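Shall we go through a protein fold together, starting from nothing but its sequence? Please make up or recall a protein chain and show it to me in full. Go ahead whenever you are ready, and we will take it from there.
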Amino acid sequence: MDNNGQITIDYLIGIIIFLFAVIFIFNYTSGIFTPFHSNSDEITLIADRTSTALVEKILSEGDETVPNMLNKDKTDDFFTELDTNYDSYIDYLGLTGSYLRYDFNVTLENQTSTINTGGKVIPRGVNVGQTKRIVLIRNDDNGETETAIMSFRVW
């Protein structure tokens, strides 16, 4: 006669109840955080697409061997146009749709300071997608190039 007081079926039922409780807790807690899920991956893809269109097509010097070379005059005109006709430029870049509208900010910096910035000011508490590109800016007046970092932010 065994005096342990534990039958195999009792042990099996206890383990099953324990596993169901653990599974329920994991399912419940993952559902709690779903409303706070970030859509920054989608926004980062939009920022990347916009940076590619601007750097490689719109502001490009046109030299196919150096795709990240920008024309200084085109770049200056872009920042002026972005500040004066923001809504039309957002439409031109494809950041407005039937249901969603994205805002946009661009900053051009060299190693020591900010060269230029345009677009809206980034509000607090929003998901921001950001892409940075290293670019060369070619000055048509003297032919010199300058290395800079162009940051594209979309929210």
Notes: The chain has one domain: 39-154.
